[in-house]
Amino acid sequence: MSHRQTNSDNLERFLNLLGVEYRQPGIEALTELVTAFMTRVPFENISKLYYFKRDGLRTLPDTERYLEGIERNNFGGTCYPNNYHLNQLLCHLGYNAALCGAGMADPDVHLVNLVYVEDREFLVDAGYAAPFLKPLPRDLKQDYVVEMGRDRYVLRPQSSDGYSRLDLFRDGELKHGYTVNPTPRTIEHFAHVIEDSFTDSSVFMKSILIVRLYPNRSIVIHNLSVIESEGTDYQIQPLESRDELPAVAEEPFSIPGTIVSEAIAGLGDLGDPWN
Prior knowledge:
Helices cover 29% and strands 29% of the residues. The chain is of the alpha+beta class and 275 residues long. The protein has a single domain, classed as Arylamine N-acetyltransferase fold (2-Layer Sandwich), CATH 3.30.2140. A hairpin with an 8-residue loop joins strand 7 and strand 8 (164-170). The longest helix is centred in the N-terminal third of the chain and has 14 residues, at 27-40.
């Protein structure tokens, strides 16, 4: 797996896309950057399906394709491209940012960032379709909670060996979660997992998930439902058929409907990304 590093031109391009200026690394600057990324770059698997169908892409989009996707089509990505390219940006800006694996049913199937700044360590995860608009502290004495709509995310204090557990509760019931392994990894460590994510049985090759985040609210397309949340309130609007998805994705996600139509054409029974 080979990827071009974020060069100076792409760095400037990336920052312009996020609407932020270069600042010396620090907790405040990191928070500004993470908030900008999370509210500008969606979690979505339309680009994954689209690039796979159009170009046969079975790996991460390189920096040029990734930034072009944001600019032209309001793409983002799933955990691997979003967290990898955010990691490259952080490192290029001078942050001590480590790519790390997180276990779900299997170890290291999820990708996150651990960022060390001002003698503290933070979890930065732009790939969990979650409202993590700020870096999540890892130096916890008690649970750290993030809530949005019907979802409640709980980050636990580190275990004795430095692992961190994050749990997602939906409607009060444990729905999903992962455990962060703090060992720094290279992107090549995830090559096999990324390749496997393009198989027919892989969750994001047989489901639809688009998440747009705003301060204190979110809009989500989850298969054939549109979920709008504000604070801890939410409403769910079911769609009658897949034919509605292209138009729904045009507003408020601004992903071209023609691309959505091409991406989802031929999808079989839809699975639940959180199962």
